[in-house]
Amino acid sequence: MAEMSVSSEVPVNNTIYINNINEKVKLDELKTSLKAIFSQFGHILEILAFKTLKHKGQAWVVFEDASAASRAIQKMQNFPFHDKPMRIQYARTKSDIIAKKDGTFVPREKKKRHEEKGKKRKEQHDALQAAMGLNLAYNGAYGATPQLSQIPYMAKSAVPEAPAPPNSILFIQNLPHQTTPMMLQMLFCQYPGFKEVRMVEAKPGIAFVEYENEAQSTQSMMGLQGFKIVPENPMSITYAKK
DNA sequence: AGCACA
Predict the structure, then answer these.
(1) In the record, which residues are listed under signal peptide (predicted)?
(2) What is the pLDDT of residues A68-89, one digit of tens each?
């Protein structure tokens, strides 16, 4: 049985997973500074970080030896990094670059998804229509007016608190409990620049939707503000706090 | 909040 780390209950790994990283830091700067900080524990094979909604604020540092990863966790846990304490664990799975050295690497399928994409799309579309009991073609078309016929959410909150400044990520509230990520994707992917939708399991009724840029997120917000998946829940869309 | 393989 693999040796377990006490704090995280994740087995020892060559790779450390870091989160709680300041999301304002640019990717290349982030990688450079991680390299500078972690090289002292052993040879680093690779540092990975991404800027998508799901993966921002996180990074993977792959060490040649797992012992270096262990030392890094011991010594750098909660280390203040760009004004935030790093949270470090072993990565949950083996990094590809390690698997390649092992000879255990099996490339993951990506084109398969592409082949089935048309079909998947259709299924998602049908699922959403069934769930909402309406036809998207008349509702969500780019530039078309959503089911806003009634009072937009603005009218209810006479004195809203200072909103987050415009940015590429939207914060959606007042979603009905039966809302699924697929349903939201069907709605929001119709607008150009759509990247991804994210729901938080622990917090029903809200979601984040990311676009390539703020002009595109703004178009989407204007198009879908107050959209009702069910009649009693007009969705409220604001820019996400940064 | 969030575990990837640009």
Answers:
(1) none
(2) 999 999 999 999 999 999 999 9
Interacting residues of A154 by C-beta distance below 8 A, sequence separation 6+ = A160
Return left, alpha or beta for A223; rule: phi > 0 is left, psi -120 to 50 is alpha, else beta. alpha
Classify the phi-psi angles of A205: left when phi > 0, otherwise alpha if psi is within -120 to 50, otherwise beta.
left
Residues 6+ apart with CB under 8 A from A173: A205, A206, A235, A236, A237, A238
Q: For residue A70, which amino acid is it?
A: S
Q: For residue A103, what are its two tokens? A: 């000879």
Q: Is the pLDDT at A148 greater than 50, yes or no?
A: no
Q: Which bases along strand B come within 7 Å of a protein CB atom?
A: 1-6
**Residues A45-72, mean pLDDT to the nearest whole number:** 97
Say yes or no: Cβ of A89 under 7 A from any atom of strand B: yes
Q: Is the pLDDT of residue A145 over 60?
A: no
A33 within 8 A of A50, measured Cβ to Cβ: no
Closest CA to the C1' of B1: that residue is: A200
Per 3-state DSSP, chain A is made up of helix, strand and coil in percentages (nearest 5) of 35, 20, 45
Query: In this structure, what are the phi and psi dihedrals at residue A174, rounded to the nearest 5 degrees?
Result: 65, 35
